[in-house]
Amino acid sequence: MNKKPKLDELDEKLSRFFPGRIVRKDLVKNLKVGFTIPVFVLEYLLGKYCSTTDEDEIQSGL
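RE: above sequence
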């Protein structure tokens, strides 16, 4: 995968207050190439299983 984008203070706060609603667009872009599903479905699944700032948890969710 590409290198992880740096999260600033606002990103951290949004992730804390809106769990499951924040989607990293770099993950969407990487996965969109391999799967033929609508982007909104992919974003929903990423929000549900990869909505964290911990890179290890994101990798286990993928």
